[in-house]
Every structure is written in C-alpha cells, then in structure tokens.
Amino acid sequence: MKTLSLAVLSLTLTGCFRARMNIDVSEDGTFTGSETMLMSADMLTTEGGSIDDAIAALIEGEKENRPDAVFEPVKEEKNGIAYGGYKVNELPEDMFTVKKEGNTITVEIPTNMVEEQLEDEDEAEEFGVPADDEMFADEGDADDSGMSMAALKQYGAEATVTVNMPGKPKTNAGTVNGNTVTIDMLNEFDVPSIIITCSTGPNKGLIIGICGGAALLIAAAAGFLLMRRKQSMA
C-alpha cells in the first residue's frame, strides 16, 4: 500500500484534484481523446482573484507546454464543492501506449501513473499539490499520520481513465461496459500495468464460411438456370 504524508494531505484536502482521461481507440490502432484537470475553487483562489481568472492563468501556463492543443475552461460542482480547470483535446502519450499487432489492439497504462505525476514538479502543479519524489512510500516506512491513496478518494480526489475500444475488450483491471473500460487510478493494483486488449475486423472463419456459402449458392443458381435452359430447348 502507498501512503501520502500529512503535509501533502493537508493541502490536498483543501484543494482536492479531479483528473479524467478519455481515450478513444480506432480499429487501425490510432487514438484520440481528451484530458480534464480540475482543482477545488478554494485551491485555485488561494492567492486571491476570481476562479475564472485562475482558470485562465492555468490554461495560459499549460499552453506553453502544449501550444497546438485546444483548451476549454471547465467549472463543475460535486458534493457541494466547486471545481475549476480545463479540458484539453491532446493526451499525454508518455503515460500510456496503444499498439496494433495483426487484428489485436493493446492499450497499456502504468498503474503508478498518478504517483508519477504527483512526484513530478510540473505535473504536480496541475493537481494543486507540491511535488515530492518521496511522497509515496511503503506503508511500513510511513509514520502514523500517513494516509493511503484510497483515503484521497474519501476526501473527494478523483483520477479516472476511460478507454473506448473498437471491439469487445478484455482487461486485467477496471470495469467493462460494452466496449468501454473505466479504471479508477486511485485504486491499489496488484499488477504493474493495466492491459486492455480487443480484436478488430471480422472473424476469418466467418469470412471463409460466408464465401463458401456464397459459392454454393452461385453454383446452385447456375445449375438451375442451365437445367431450365435445357428444358426450354427440348
């Protein structure tokens, strides 16, 4: 189990983050999607000013890193807490991989994705918490004030990834609904990576069956026409 220090927790509780990533995978193995990053209004306005001004400043800072991306300001409310941030149409490709081999598409997402973001100075700033490369430690190394990743959820933190696959998916984590896999990244995982796979294109056996059936129908039709012609000539 991973734990979070009390110092970081105190900041997180006053400015809980909500992070959502949506990945849409196509049959050819390419993908599009969006990322939504939100912080509580209290955290955004700690230095004064309005939430709108804070969101604008947050987007302006992010545009320096992603100049070609399209940003959209977002404001939401959940459980009586106001949140503000942005939605961007460009995904951080270094946080997951999508590849196609034959008719199989595989999406791989490291289970420590959130931890790595919070331990990186630039990424942690988006969540509204200070970066700390020792923020997460084994439970045995933590003091009594340490808190788990699960505890963050209890205080409103959210980090989810939604993957829309072109076919029926199989996954080693998360929940499946139709072609969609949803993963709560604040869960504790027993695997280093989340692996989502699906097959694309029609079944080869089905194609052979259809082609064979069509050939039989054509042969039968040709035989019937030939027989009728012979009868008419007799």
Question: Concise description?
Answer:
The chain has 234 residues and is an alpha+beta fold. It is 33% helix and 34% strand.
Write a structural description:
The chain is α+β, with helices and mostly antiparallel strands and 234 residues long. The protein is built from seven helices and 14 strands. The N terminus is likely disordered.
Keywords:
single chain; 234 residues; alpha+beta; 2 domains; 7-stranded mixed beta sheet; 4-stranded antiparallel beta sheet; 7 helices; 14 strands; 34% strand; elongated; disordered N terminus
Blueprint (SSEs and pairs):
Layout: E1 2-4, H1 6-14, E2 17-25, E3 31-40, H2 41-44, H3 51-65, E4 71-78, E5 81-88, E6 97-101, E7 104-110, H4 113-118, H5 121-127, E8 136-138, E9 147-148, H6 149-154, E10 158-164, E11 170-171, E12 175-177, E13 180-184, E14 193-199, H7 204-233
Parallel strand pairs: 2-10
Antiparallel strand pairs: 1-8, 1-9, 2-3, 3-5, 4-5, 6-7, 7-14, 10-13, 11-14, 12-13
Biggest beta-sheet profile: 7 strands, mixed
Considering DSSP H and I runs of 4 or more, what fraction of the residues is helical? 25-40%
Mean pLDDT: 76
Our count of helices gives: 7
Strand content of the residues, in percent?
25-35%
Rg is: 26 Å
Number of spatially distinct domains = 2
Strand order of the largest sheet: 4-5-3-2-10-13-12
User: What does the overall shape look like?
Assistant: elongated
The run of helices and strands is EHEEHHEEEEHHEEHEEEEEH
Q: Tell me the distance between the termini.
A: 89 Å
Structural class by helix and strand composition: alpha+beta
Low-confidence stretches: 1-15, 126-147, 204-208
For the secondary structure, the number of strands is 14
